[in-house]
Automatic annotation (TrEMBL):
CDD domains given in the database record: HTH_XRE
Organism (species): Mogibacterium diversum
Alphabetized UniProt keyword annotations: DNA-binding
The name this protein goes by in its record: Transcriptional regulator
Domain HTH cro/C1-type, chain residue ranges per copy: 8-62
Xref: PROSITE patterns: HTH_CROC1 (PS50943)
InterPro entries assigned: Cro/C1-type_HTH, Lambda_DNA-bd_dom_sf
Keyword DNA-binding found: yes
Length: 294
């Protein structure tokens, strides 16, 4: 458990919790959290179980430095592709259609692409993950085979992509999906393209560009950096935590930004001094930046 204290701190920050809030949720003192994170104390088994339950992870994951993707699958059919890399790379990911996509960084050495479905009995035959490693670039492409349509993929295919934290350069992902989550990526730029109904951002430190002409809901759970939205004749909603500080900017043609708190329209609460910023670009689009009730 040499890095156990780092694990607790990592998951606490990922969840957007202060030491005090975490202590309140698991029924201990703030001083206990401090001791666990600085290595001067160790939680007993009941507290380990409470911590794992709070962060929705296994105790093995909590005690391991490998924040792995190996949770038990909730799906009947699955396929897994792994690829070793040994240096920093830029990633170009093309997925086509999917029901849900989860893109995240983890402490490991391999790219891991997992496909899940409760419908595709022949998922390993119907889909092929192609990974091309060319100098400083990794291309990941998901190909549909045997006449499988994108429409069917968008109804029932779940894709998890796990990239080693220490090897992440720029990331570009193209997908048509109901939901896309992006977690724990620290890099210069993440570019998201396609038709996506809902985007969730958690624990990232990056300039994130989202280019989609669907009406979207964007959930910013925790983030450091920029969120830039480019749309054409769309109306989207961006939900932020109550303590999230940002400055906003409107560019393009005939775009509008509105602000809401707890379901009511309010004046702008952006902060021009903030390092985080939210930008709306494109043509004839609306963005509502909202703080919703917990």
């Amino acid at each position: 458990m040499t890095l156990f204290e780092d694990q607790i701190k990592h998951y606490r920050k990922q969840a957007g919790l202060s030491q005090e809030k975490m202590a309140e949720k698991i029924g201990v003192s703030r001083q206990a959290i401090t001791k666990w994170e600085n290595g001067t104390g160790t939680p007993d088994i009941s507290n380990l179980m409470a911590i794992a339950n709070l962060f929705q992870i296994s105790i093995d994951e909590l005690l391991s430095n490998e924040k792995t993707e190996s949770k038990k699958s909730d799906y009947i059919y699955e396929s897994r592709t792994e690829y070793d890399i040994d240096g920093k790379k830029d990633f170009d990911i093309k997925l086509g259609g999917a029901y849900k996509v989860d893109l995240k960084a983890y402490n490991g050495e391999k790219i891991v692409v997992e496909l899940f479905s409760n419908v595709y009995k022949n998922i390993q035959a119907d889909y092929k993950v192609k990974i091309d490693d060319i100098r400083h670039n990794i291309d990941i492409e998901l190909a549909r085979l045997n006449g499988v349509s994108e429409a069917i993929a968008k109804e029932s295919l779940v894709v998890n992509i796990n990239i080693p934290t220490q090897y992440i350069g720029r990331v570009e992902i193209s997908v048509n999906a109901g939901t896309l989550t992006v977690n724990d990526i620290e890099n210069e730029n993440i570019e998201i393209n396609g038709k996506i109904s809902e985007v969730a951002l958690k624990g990232n430190k990056s300039e994130i560009e989202i280019d989609s002409n669907l009406d979207m809901q964007i959930n910013v759970i925790s983030h450091e950096g920029a969120v830039e939205i480019n749309q054409l004749s769309a109306t989207s909603r961006l939900i932020i935590p109550e303590n999230f500080c940002f400055r906003s900017a409107k560019k393009g043609i005939a775009n509008t930004i509105y602000y809401e708190k707890y379901g009511k329209k309010v004046e702008s609460f952006s902060n021009d001094e903030s390092d985080n910023y939210i930008e709306l670009n494109g043509i004839k689009s609306e963005l509502v930046i909202a703080i919703d009730e917990a």
